[in-house]
């Protein structure tokens, strides 16, 4: 997640999720559950990275938060507003979930209780707006070792093959991508795997190399077939 102030925004999300805060270096704030050991899929960890540019458009990649009851949903939304979140307009109309934005304007949703998210932890899903969920499902089902649970013209849903942690969901929208995403996925090869070989595999699936001004860095920046940037990190 890009931020103009990674420490402040990271602190906000740490309170939202109830996670621990650390830093791998200047301009990066890392969040993960207490006791988390990579590559346990029980959580999709969050890295908040300092960038100079402000947010200008609605994010295409967002976080959905899980709740256990309507009362929990109401109380959580109120607590997050006390922490600095503000109501957000996603064009949602009359819906059972609550749309908010974090202190830097990144939209997220506090969902009404749903049985599917009963065991995800605080983060129910990472959602991605897209034009063609079926095409996204074809790419990401091969890109990651997760399981494809659902695919329709309007929605594609994946989750860890171990059946734990949050979901990754691609939701159909008529809006085209126009700027670099401020929230993106990072993929990391497993220990013993080769980063360059993984990049080649992803490009064979349809990913393309992109330049977002990253310079000389140890990770490789690619984009999926709809232009959503993601990074391929070095193995742990």
UniProtKB/TrEMBL annotation:
Species per Swiss-Prot/TrEMBL record:
Nocardiopsis lambiniae
User: SUPFAM superfamilies from the entry?
Assistant: Glyoxalase/Bleomycin resistance protein/Dihydroxybiphenyl dioxygenase (SSF54593)
Pfam family for this entry, one: Glyoxalase_6
Where on the tree of life does the source sit, at the highest rank? Bacteria
VOC domain segment(s):
122-235
Q: What is this protein called?
A: VOC family protein
Cite the InterPro entries for this sequence.
Answer: Glyas_Bleomycin-R_OHBP_Dase (IPR029068), Glyoxalase_6 (IPR041581), VOC_core (IPR037523)
CDD domains, A to Z: VOC
Gene3D superfamilies recorded for this chain?
A: 2,3-Dihydroxybiphenyl 1,2-Dioxygenase, domain 1
């Amino acid at each position: 997640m890009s931020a103009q102030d990674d420490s402040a925004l990271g602190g906000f999300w740490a309170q939202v999720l109830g996670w621990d805060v650390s830093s791998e270096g200047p301009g990066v704030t890392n969040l993960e559950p207490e006791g988390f050991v990579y590559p346990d899929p029980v959580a999709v960890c969050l890295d908040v990275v300092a960038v100079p540019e402000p947010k200008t458009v609605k994010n295409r990649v967002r976080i959905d938060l899980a709740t256990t009851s309507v009362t929990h949903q109401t109380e959580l939304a109120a607590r997050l507003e006390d922490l600095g979140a503000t109501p957000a307009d996603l064009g949602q109309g009359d819906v059972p979930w609550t749309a908010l934005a974090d202190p830097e304007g990144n939209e997220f949703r506090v969902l009404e209780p749903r049985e599917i998210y009963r065991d995800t932890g605080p983060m129910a899903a990472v959602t991605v707006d897209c034009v063609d969920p079926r095409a996204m499902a074809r790419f990401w089902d091969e890109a990651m070792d997760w399981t494809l649970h659902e695919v329709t013209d309007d929605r594609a849903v994946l989750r860890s093959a171990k059946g734990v942690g949050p979901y990754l969901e691609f939701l159909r929208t008529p809006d085209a991508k126009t700027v670099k995403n401020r929230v993106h996925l990072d993929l990391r090869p497993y220990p013993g795997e080769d980063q360059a070989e993984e990049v080649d595999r992803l490009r064979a699936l349809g990913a393309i190399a992109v330049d977002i001004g990253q310079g000389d860095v140890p990770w490789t920046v690619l984009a999926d077939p709809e232009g959503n940037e993601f990074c391929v990190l070095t193995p742990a």
